[in-house]
Amino acid sequence: MPILVLNCGSSSAKYKLYDVKKDIFVAEGMIEKIGEKQSFLKHKSSDGKTISTGIDAPDHHMAIKIIIETLMHDNHGVIKSKDEIKAIGHRVVHGGEEFSSSVLITDKVINSIKKFSRLAPLHNPPALYGIEACIELLSGIPQVAVFDTAFHQTLPVEAYMYAIPYKYYTKYGLRRYGFHGTSHKYVAGKAARMLKKNLKDLKIITCHLGNGCSMTAVDKGNSIETSMGFTPLEGLIMGTRCGDMDPAVVPFLMEQENITTKEVDNILNKKSGLLGVSGIGNDMRQLNEEIAKGNERAKLAIDMFFYRIKKYIGAYMGIMNGLDAIVFTAGIGENNPWLIERVKKEMSELISKFKVEILVIPTKEEWMIAMETNEIIKKS
Ligand code: ADP
Q1: Is pTM beyond 0.90 here?
Q2: CATH number for the domain formed by residue range(s) 3-147
Q3: Residue 85 Cα distances to 68, 70, 91, angstroms
C-alpha cells in the first residue's frame, strides 16, 4: 500500500505517492497559486499519464480535496479508493526543541506545531492546513510529521546558542535550529552506503545547495553543526538571501534608508545573495552563462558564494577534527561540476592529506519522508 507525502507551502501543495515496498513512486504533482483567482494542477503518474490544468483552489482544504480526487480519477488516477493509502507523511518545517525525530500526528502534536508557528510563520501554518484537511478528508489514515529541524536537534549547546542575553533563549526560544534536516540526513546516509562504510565511522560535510543553501557537519551520523540558524537566513550566500553578516548592518540600513523591519527583512531574504550581488538573478544557470560572457558582477557573486562554502568546509573540518567526505546535493549542488573542481583545486592540500571523498548525491526528501512515515507507523 502506498504512502502519500505532502509538502504544503503558503500557496502550493506538492504531493508524491510512494510504494515504499517496491521503492517506486506511483504518482506525483503539485497545486500552485492556492488562494489566487486561478490555481493550477500538474499531475503525473508512473505510467506516464500527465495533466496540467487550471483549477479552483481557494484554500488548502480544497487543494487537498482535488489532490485526492486526482489520485482516484477514472482516467489518470492511480488508486480506486482512499483506503488504499497506507499513511500520510507531512513535511513540517519547524519542530522547535520538542521533536528530534518524526512523530505520529496527534492532537498534542498539532498543538505543538501551532505553537512553533511563531518561529516559522510562513511555513508551519500551511503544513497545519494540510494536516487538518487530511484529518477531515482521509479520516482514519495515520499521519506522520517529518520536521526539517529534527535532524539538527543533536547540535551541542555551544553550537546552537547565540551570544545574546540568555533570557531571550528562555523567553522566545531564540537559538539556532537549522533546516533542510531531511535532506542532510538522507545524503549523509546515502554517502556512507556509497562508500561502503558505517555512518558511525564517518565525518561528513553535507552541502544542500538549492534556492536555499545550507551545510551540515555530520559526525558519526549526528548533525553537530549546521549553517542555518534561528531562521534560514543565516550561513551560506543563497539565491536571494545574504547569509552571515555583521548584525549591525540591520539597524544601519534601517536608519540610513528610513525603512521598516519588514522592509529590511525583505531586502535580506529576497533581494540579497546571488541576486543582490550580481544584479542579474538568483538562477545559477543564468549566472554561469553571464560569467561565460565576461560579466564581472556575476563572477563576483559566484566567487563570494564559493568562498563562503570553502570557509565553512574549513570550520567544519576543525570542529570534527578531520573529514572523510564532502557531499553536494540539490539544484546547484547536483548540476554544477565546477563546484567540485574548485573544491578539489583550491583545497587540494587538505583534500589529499585527509583523503577526502567528494560526492554528488541527488537529494530525495520526499522519499525520505515516505520512509520515515513507514517506520513510524510500523512502530505505532
Ligand atoms: P529549491 O530549494 O527551490 O528546491 P532547487 O534544489 O531546485 O531549489 O535548486 C535551484 C537552484 O539550482 C537554482 O539556482 C538553479 O539555477 C540551480 N540549477 C538547477 N538545475 C541546474 C542546472 N542544470 N545547472 C546549473 N544550475 C542548476
Answers
A1: yes
A2: 3.30.420.40
A3: 10, 14, 17
